[in-house]
Amino acid sequence: MPVMRDDVVAWLERCAAVLEENRDYLTQLDAAIGDADHGANMDRGFKAFMAKLPSVADKDIGTILKTLGMTLVATVGGAGGPLYGTFFLQLGVKTANKLMLTPEDWAEALEAGINGVIARGQARPGDKTMVDALLPALEAFKEAIRNGDSFGKALQRMAEAAEQGMKATIPMVARKGRASYLGERSAGHQDPGATSSYLILKAAADTWANAT
Amino acid sequence: MKKLINDPMNVVPEALEGMAKAHPDLIKVHFNPNFVYRADAPRPGKVAVISGGGSGHEPMHVGFVGYGMLDAACPGAVFTSPTPDQMYEAAKMVHGGAGILMIVKNYAGDVMNFDMAADLLRGEGFQVESVLIADDVAVESSLYSQGRRGTGTTVLAEKILGAAAERGYDLQRLAALGRRVAENGRSMGMALTSCTVPHVGKPTFELGEDEMEIGIGIHGEPGRYREPLKKADEIVERLMEPILKDLPFKAGDRVICMVNSMGGTPLSELYIVYRKVAEICEKSGIQIVRNLVGAYITSLEMAGTSITLLRADDEMLELWDHPVKTPALRWGM
């Protein structure tokens, strides 16, 4: 089975649950190199979306994802709001009017989302941002599909690559956002944005494990 | 925490309600999303000038809404960038059909949220330009960081660009003028005490009774260095030297000078600061042709000051003198 509209809804519900569970963890990571609000901001944003979800859960996938994007933009604030808002808005643009996603649809949507994040935040790989988790994840997913892996298996590869990318931010020196003012002192800390990106992609891999 | 508030979570909306009641002739306040806009908006044929940023810096930006300055200002939570829906709705409320100019301070969150609002508006056919203020010389300019913070020059830019819009500048000409103002303004600040964000409840940083922080940011971000407290004249020298060196300001330059209170420093002390600023400028052959002394861009109740110099040409000075009527800045009418 490809990923159906209800599977997308299940993924976003899982994202909300996982971000609530990891609220304090993300905030602790952010306290070390930022302004200690990432966990609370993401949790607030996804909670606001969960309140709106019943009114769009029977719409197409694009509408659901665009609603999430607009909700995050309006409720998260700081840098996380525009970045994750853009990510989901772009996912929504690529999945407009769709009721199911093939692996090719997902690759295209994810790529558009990541390109949106890069355009919005002007971050490059190695700047110690969410891009460092997202880009390797996309590459791993595309490669797995090229190698003939199932959709579910390729999503697994995607989540593993995101985790590695997240861990790779630990020794990096931040070049974007508030952490960049710390310069060398930002090294030795895992980036909170890369961490939330991993959690969101891992939630997709877990929810869609049986997709083909 | 000792503050004159009702509820830490309601500081921003209750302050906005108070502003609306105090200045019904000048401004109106819109809630959800929050923005302050000119009572006589929209002004047909005029470029709409919009700004915004975290709350806690009052009077900037909400106090600068009115004739000759901003058409709308979008206040975020205390020290947190506003969200794009605020700028989007504010722009739609005040645009007069001649485009929208956004004045943005260089912080990652502000830049991205304003960019998103601009994208949304452009998507609906509006013409949007933005001017980025990054004038804080305390932050060494670097390709490998977010770059300089936007501080005092923002106030001067809002005055000058607001006047230009009032005089009928078109959007492109206004944006070009804005960039020229941004390029010619430099600021640096210092703190004697910390400040307390209401919903946090404890001071943003610790500063000893006999210490000061030179190069402080307007959200209490660390400055260049911390050292034992000095006399006012020596403190002014520590701020003026990097400002003058950076542009650099040269003999013969005419400047608009702002000596600003971080919120907790009284006017008498600001004049002690201005006295030394004026002396240094005189010795360097720099002519202060206009000045502002007072609390214009604050950090809640932080004690301290910031100094801004803007190298001004005839056009900027003429626009500076143009009448203005806002809650916090008024002359000529």
From TrEMBL, chain A:
Class of the enzyme per the UniProt entry, highest EC level: transferase
EC number: 2.7.-.-
Domain of life: Bacteria
InterPro entries per the UniProt record, alphabetical: DhaK_L_YcgS, DhaL_dom, DhaL_dom_sf, Dihydroxyacetone_Kinase
Keywords: Kinase, Transferase
Keyword Cell cycle: no
Cross-referenced Pfam families: Dak2
Molecular function via GO: glycerone kinase activity
Domain spans labelled DhaL: 6-206
One GO term (biological process): glycerol catabolic process
Database matches in SMART domains: Dak2 (SM01120)
Gene Ontology CC: cytosol
NCBIfam families: dha_L_ycgS
Protein name: PEP-dependent dihydroxyacetone kinase, ADP-binding subunit DhaL
Source species of the chain: Candidatus Thermoflexus japonica
Gene that encodes it: dhaL
Automatic annotation (TrEMBL), chain B:
Keyword Lipid biosynthesis applies: no
EC number: 2.7.1.121
InterPro entries with a match to the protein in the record: DhaK_1, DhaK_dom, Dihydroxyacetone_Kinase
Keywords: Glycerol metabolism, Kinase, Transferase
A Gene Ontology biological process term: glycerol catabolic process
Listed Pfam families: Dak1 (PF02733)
Metabolic or biological pathway: Polyol metabolism; glycerol degradation
GO molecular function, one term: phosphoenolpyruvate-glycerone phosphotransferase activity
Domain DhaK: from-to ranges: 7-331
Annotated Gene Ontology cellular component terms: cytosol
Lineage: superkingdom: Bacteria
Catalyzed reactions: dihydroxyacetone + phosphoenolpyruvate = dihydroxyacetone phosphate + pyruvate
Enzyme class: transferase
Oligomer status and interactors: Homodimer. The dihydroxyacetone kinase complex is composed of a homodimer of DhaM, a homodimer of DhaK and the subunit DhaL.
Protein name (Swiss-Prot/TrEMBL): phosphoenolpyruvate--glycerone phosphotransferase
Organism in which the protein naturally occurs: Candidatus Thermoflexus japonica
